[in-house]
Amino acid sequence: METLLEVNHLVTEFRTAEGNVQAVRDVSFSIAKGETLCIVGESGCGKSITSLSVIGLLPSNGKIASGEVKYEGKPIHDLPYEELRKMRGTKISMIFQEPMTALNPVLTVGYQLREPLILHHKISKNEATKQGIELLKQVGIPYPEKRMNQYPHELSGGMRQRVMIAIALACHPGLLIADEPTTALDVTIQAQILDLINDLKEKLNMGVMMITHDMGVVAEVADRVMVMYAGKKVEEGSVQEIFDHPKHPYTIGLLNSVPNIDDPDFELEPIPGSLPSLQENIQGCRFHPRCKFAMDKCRELTPPEFKTDEGHVVSCWLHEEVEEVKHGHLVAQI
Amino acid sequence: MVTLSPKSNQKILLELKGVKKYFPIKGGILKRVQGHVKAVEDVSLHLFEGESLGVVGESGCGKSTLGRAILGLEELTEGKIHFRDEEIQDLKRKEKLKFVKEMQMIFQDPYASLNPRQRIGHALEEVFTMHTNMSAKEKRASVVDLLHEVGLKEEHFDRYPHEFSGGQRQRIGIARAIALNPSFVICDEAVSALDVSVQAQVLKLLKTLQEKYQLSYLFISHDLGVVRYFCDRVLVMYLGNTVELGTVKGLFANPLHPYTQALLSAIPRPSVHTNTKRIRLQGDLPNPANPPSGCPFHTRCPIAQEVCKVDKPAWQEVEPAHFAACHFAGTKI
Q: In this complex, do B272 and A214 lie within 8 Å of one another by their Cβ atoms?
């Protein structure tokens, strides 16, 4: 598959009263065309900041301190403002958690839908209106002509999220970033929206980067999964691998914290403690204070990435031996 | 004999009879009442001692209003509420005070209910100031006990709300609710705002407290996974109406109402090996100010017939201890 987005050793920093704080620490990943990557983790683990770094929408006190972001092989992390602006919408689009705060309440749906079309494609208002109606049809909104003249408050939550998706897809971007797109919606509506995103992804051969904390959503939409903890990537692999053979104790903990609806005898196993703050300096593995398998080594040294299987990487000392065994095997062969 | 509860021969703690809550819609120059939002429509149920009853449904289905109505935070339009065989819906403020000690509520966002400029310890002491005659020393000791009870430490006494994480704040909300040894606690989306790992911790805490103090919970949630784990019985609501009530086991294994079936199938499963057929409901929740005629669910129901548009289905016991309101209860879609 063709690589669409490549992020290498991304470090994002924030200037705060307590000095510079690293919200994303050396994260690398890639997304191919037509692939969905889910980023999971607790709130405050840096998953939203990773996505904002990719699209260049960091708040004014944040910046990419090092590392690179490449879209179709071209670096985009250091583009000047105007060029980045041209890229947003046409190459990379984003939809947000709360559609009511992302839509402008005093402008009609039609106006907000025409805006990216007129700006990027330089077409007339009439033409944009026509295309806008087509887009609303595409995301499954009934009576699109009527909706064009309505304001966001006249629509239900699910409808608003559909409008957001229509706006994001107006200029056929290659990559769609969805930041908790269904968290604010009811389950029956959530199922509709997830179906829609999946359908559109296949139809338009987009890459999708989905940020979520709901393991159910992950199992439903993801091709690959990246688990983040306290600003670091702790595990990455295909969705089957992550659910069937989770390697990192944090991933296992996350999976055991979700009540299983099909199994009446399921017992919850919470992860003790809570996420450390970003300023906190933790020696060694950042998860060790909450990890029940923590060894002396975990308290001293940061674990590197170990490759356990094809496409499955994990940052945990527990998997070092596995690696050595394999490596030794390889050496013997040579 | 038909047992209504999973744990038989239990005493009924709370009973609702035909509870209705309508909110008037006022409009025009004279602010005349133009219509009603029917938030809760004719709900009858019992809650047993030591039981957890889950209330599930989409947003706007009236589950929170039901909880608030039971506590007396909303005046009923119609109906009766019995608590330990006493009618409580029309009591005067003073008479109500003794029931307030017995019935407590845990809210979704504890940060919104804490005074940001008041130390946590002092906020919790207020409960005892209101309801007991303890001395300052006794109050402090009681609060420290409470903090230990919910997994916090004595050092947290002098901290302000902003110094706590979401999970810890919810623990404070729980501490306040259990301070006066209530027998009945309403949890209104008590774990919805928390991360999964913290959510699991708080659920465990609620369960431990239930066993220790024989608490009864009315557990309002939109998360069916949490309800299945936590509750003994489940009530499903749709547009202010009760559509199905059953034991967790019975309802999840054999949902009778098409809405319950759709709701259960819509939940994304945290596993890659499920191939349950999804029932996709079309459209949105209808406007509760102008509910559909007949069965409230007929506009979105995949098996709706002519009769559903005209007649409202009766609330009936389809299986032992398993109630549903549907003309075609038990039909699989």
A: no
Contact B329, B318 (CB under 8 A): yes
- Chain B: give the shortest CA distance to residue A237, in Å: 13
Nearest CB among B200, B263, B274 relative to A270 is that of B200
Q: How far apart are the C-alpha atoms of B187 and A74, rounded to whole Å? A: 52
Residue A332 has pLDDT above 60, yes or no: no
The three-class DSSP label of residue A193 is helix
CB-based contacts of A329: which residues, under 8 Å, 6+ apart?
A: none
- The set of residues, in sequence order, having a beta carbon less than 8 Å from that of A172 and lying 6+ positions away, is A90, A204
ipTM for the predicted complex = 0.78
Least confident of A319-333, B89-103, B143-157, B187-201: A319-333
Q: Please, what is the average pLDDT of chain B? A: 88
Query: Closest to A259 (Cβ–Cβ): which among B229, B268, B272?
Result: B229
Which residues are paired to B245 by β-bridges? Answer: B235, B323
Main-chain phi, psi angles of B173, to 5 degrees: -60, -40
Are A211 and A51 in contact by the 8 Å Cβ rule? The answer is yes
pLDDT recorded at residue B276: 66
Contact B229 A158 (CB under 8 A): no
Query: Residue A322: what pLDDT?
Result: 57
